[in-house]
Amino acid sequence: MQIALDTPGKKRALVFGLLVLSAGYFAAVSLQFSAEWLASRPSLSSVRLATRLDPGNAEFHDRLARLDDLAFHDARSAAEQLRMAVYLNPYDAHYWLRLSDAYQVLGDVRAQEEAVERAIAADPTTPDVAWVAANQFLAQGKTDKALQEFHIVMTGAPNMVNMVLVMCFRADPNPDVVLREVLPPYPGSYFSLLERLMSKEDTEATTRVWDGLVSLHQPIELPPVFNYIKYLLLHKEPEEATAVWRETASLMGLNSYLPSSNNLIVNGDFSLDVLNGGFDWQYKKQPSVSLILDTSDFHAGHRSLAIGFDGPGVNDAGIFQIIAVRPNTTYQFSGYYRNGEIEGAGGPHFALQDLYSSNVYYLSNELKYGSSWRNEFGEFTTGPDTRMLALRVTRVPAGAAIRGKLWIDDFRLVEKQPAEARF
């Protein structure tokens, strides 16, 4: 539709109308700007004035409720402001949670519970909302609902896993409930629970958590596996430790690190990367000892381990491997070495000893006189309780100064086969 501006009066009327509209718009914008500025001030009176200037702004009512002297000294007024906030914007879960806090102070349990439920309905998946809701459910004694919310927290905020576990065990110390109701299907959360149970020395529960972790069929980190195996060995659970290593190898494609009937020593020729954990070679830094993988001199594979000695107080080279064996069983051991000039009393030896009793089943000759590769071998029979051996490079006697270099390689340990019956 076209309006004809064919007279001066019509033109003046149009200009006047535009001026009125502009003035109204400017007034509205100015009012809103003023309300925003006032609401940003920390003063209670400023926020109250902002709320009067723009009573339809839910955020202003929320800010008014959050002021210390209102929220902590006048819960009834806080609840009134928050009820207005959720009326204006029922989709902000934080308004509902703060309203539930106000109702808690007022002792209105029913209204508090309803406000928490409305917060969850408004935002069912955000971790910080779930965290507050879970803690309020705990305070109300609603453990099942709290655990459901803690599950949401764990799923969406992996950095809060340990905090969630602390609260879960306060609510229900049964690890099976936490495993079933709270943990999301992520390996990291299972390892966190595993670590907590290890700190409590609840070995039986750790095995169920590990079984749950394996059932995820997901890649896992090796360091926490090494810690768990170390824990199991320390608590004299060798069978469980070996099972964990087998399952880890399957999940991580590390089957080459598994012992076999042909050789119970893993990575005996150092051809694989040294994992420094599990049932591969492990090493601990020793004073006056250096360990280097040497690709220029080896007996088998494509490298050996070079051990340098240079000083006093050397008791052990710091390299070792834990080996699962059977009790009352005869084994045959073989290992190769070569050395440079080694000086000092008490040369290095290969030693196989019980991991728990420290009973030495095999001690080689002194590894001191072999400028070319030489083999040390022998056989021994384990005791009735022996299930784990430690293979080490040790000194006998220990402690005196020693200098020189030793290369070791091509280790093998097998069960001795019984002689064939003769007729």
Task: Kindly describe this structure.
It is built from 15 helices and 10 strands. With 423 residues, the chain is of the alpha+beta class. Among the domains are: 185-258, Serine Threonine Protein Phosphatase 5, Tetratricopeptide repeat, CATH 1.25.40; 282-415, Galactose-binding domain-like (Jelly Rolls, Sandwich), CATH 2.60.120. The termini are far apart. Mean pLDDT is 85; it is low at 14-35.
Keywords:
single chain, 423 residues, alpha+beta, Serine Threonine Protein Phosphatase 5, Tetratricopeptide repeat, Jelly Rolls, 5-stranded antiparallel beta sheet, 10 strands, elongated
Structural class: alpha+beta
Q: Mean pLDDT, rounded to whole units?
A: 85
Give the CATH level 1 class of the domain at 282-415.
Answer: Mainly Beta
* Strand order in the sheet with the most strands: 1-4-9-6-7
Question: Secondary-structure element order, as H and E?
Answer: HHHHHHHHHHHHHHHEEEEEEEEEE
Tell me the strand percentage band. Answer: 15-25%
Low-confidence stretches: 14-35
List the helices and strands and how they pair.
Layout: H1 8-40, H2 44-53, H3 58-66, H4 68-71, H5 75-88, H6 93-106, H7 109-122, H8 127-139, H9 143-156, H10 161-171, H11 175-181, H12 187-199, H13 203-215, H14 222-234, H15 238-252, E1 282-283, E2 289-294, E3 304-311, E4 316-324, E5 330-339, E6 348-354, E7 360-363, E8 374-381, E9 388-395, E10 402-415
Antiparallel strand pairs: 1-4, 2-3, 3-10, 4-9, 5-8, 5-10, 6-7, 6-9
